[in-house]
Design a protein that fits this description.
two-stranded antiparallel ribbon, 11 strands, 464 residues, 11 helices, Porin, alpha+beta
């Protein structure tokens, strides 16, 4: 074979092929210019626009499971909040049902006029009481405002005999056309018999006897009654004379216990809402929706309360809240797919200013609160997936989050239970709802992100 190669090489060594003269010019004219810079980027973007990456194993199963869990958690949280609200309102109504209105024979305390001077006590006799003495029920003695013997001061000394009217003045004359009453006849007969039976040994002074008879005659007949002996009558009497609560205090409110401080810790569910800026960012929104799932968020609140009146109060303080999300994705490492799960945190420092309306009770009280919450600082930490990039992106650097998200709205239902007597404190249970109208991301971000939060916080409240 080597000899044949040598023969061909020697025979063709001096031969020159005929090359057309315009060959190279035609080759150069057929060449296209190579794109550079933005033109090259546009070619790659157009070629990869419809490209869909390979779906990791088990991705759709995780998506279905996540979408089925979210409504169930929201439903359970809503049911728990409604159950707490219904039980709180029902217990409050049960505790305050004794203050619905005055019972028979009762009247509000504010309708009672305070007397300027001590007055005698008048006892009212029920018309239908069967246990009243028959003689006093049939008597015609008028119920006048007479001075009770119990109102005479202890140090007044001996009764002035000169102030007692004579017997002729005390006896009321009977006119010709007037029939004397049974009480007048009984009193006259009693006086006559007493004068006849009085002897020097028993009553040495006739004026003292007359003074005693005059004092007895001045006692109202309505007070000379017997108490009812029926067993069911005593609870009724007790209810009639039971003191009522004065809802309008007659004295100025003391500044003590107008200021209260409370420390609360709560857990919450944060609902994440994505919205793309244009149609080209739809893949980014979809991949974030299917890879990010809400976790249990929490917040810590230090709040002060000031009473503005009998029912109104002002609440304000500072809150540290952390919204937590879980990110799940698959990444190829050394040729094999590895499932990775990590957490994202959005940290908020807020100042709530709430106005509350309190429903009073004995130990259990309920207040409805609502007002704005002012955001002081916002920061984010974590990762998110971008379909155009092979590796996860940093949430704080590439997530386009704002440092301050503005003003939000908050509503809560506080239920307090008083513990202790001498220096009591209040146990606080408060379901709450917060909404943030503004987006957490800057204006012009590829995907905007919003949240609303619902949760329950517990704590204690102390008065100062």
């Amino acid at each position: 074979m080597k000899q044949i190669d040598d023969l061909f090489r020697d025979g063709l060594s001096g031969r020159k092929s005929a090359v057309p003269e315009d060959m190279w010019s035609r080759i150069n004219s057929a060449k296209s210019t190579v794109p550079e810079g933005e033109q090259l980027d546009a070619i790659f973007a157009a070629g990869l626009r419809s490209r869909v990456g390979k779906v990791p194993a088990g991705m759709w199963d995780r998506i279905v499971a996540a979408r089925s869990r979210k409504p169930m958690r929201l439903l359970m949280a809503t049911a728990a909040a409604l159950l707490l609200l219904v039980s709180t309102v029902g217990y409050t109504i049960y505790q305050n049902r004794s203050f619905a209105g005055p019972l028979n024979g009762e009247f509000p305390m504010e309708q009672v006029a305070s007397p300027a001077e001590p007055v005698a006590i008048e006892e009212a006799v029920p018309a239908g009481d069967k246990n009243i003495v028959e003689a006093s029920a049939q008597s015609g003695i008028e119920a006048e405002n007479r001075v009770n013997l119990t109102t005479i001061p202890e140090g007044s000394g001996r009764m002035n005999e000169q102030a007692i009217p004579p017997e002729s003045v005390r006896e009321e004359p009977v006119s010709m056309g007037t029939t004397p009453s049974a009480a007048s006849l009984a009193l006259a007969e009693l006086t006559t018999e007493a004068d006849e039976m009085v002897t020097g040994e028993r009553l040495p002074n006739t004026e003292e006897a007359r003074a005693a008879l005059y004092a007895v005659s001045e006692v109202p007949a309505a007070s000379l009654t017997l108490l009812p002996t029926d067993e069911t009558a005593f609870p009724e009497i007790k209810r009639q004379y039971r003191p009522r609560a004065n809802l309008t205090p007659a004295f100025p409110v003391s500044p003590r216990h107008r200021l209260q401080a409370e420390l609360l810790f709560g857990v919450a569910y944060a609902n994440q809402i994505f919205r793309e800026s244009d149609a080209s960012q739809l893949p980014l929104r979809e991949i974030r929706e299917v890879t990010e799932f809400p976790e249990v968020s929490y917040q810590i609140t230090l709040r002060g309360t000031r009473k503005l009146g009998e029912r109104m109060m002002l609440l304000g303080g500072i809150t540290y809240a952390e919204i937590r999300n879980r990110v799940e994705y698959s990444q190829f490492i050394n040729g094999s797919a590895v499932d990775i799960a990590t957490n994202n945190q959005i940290r908020l420092l807020e100042a709530p200013i709430l106005l509350g309306y309190r429903i009073p009770g004995r130990r259990l009280q309920v207040s409805m609160n609502a007002g704005p919450i002012f955001n002081l600082s916002t920061s984010a930490r974590g990762r998110f997936l971008n379909p155009d990039l092979p590796v996860p992106q940093d949430l704080s650097a590439e997530g386009s989050y704002r440092n301050n998200i503005g003003v939000g709205l908050m509503a809560s239902l506080s239920t307090t239970y008083r513990i202790g007597h001498k220096e009591p404190f209040l146990l606080v249970v408060e379901p709450f709802f917060k909404s943030y109208p503004g987006a957490f991301t800057v204006k012009g971000a590829p995907v905007s992100e919003k949240y609303w939060v619902a949760g329950l916080q517990l704590g204690i409240r102390k008065s100062f």
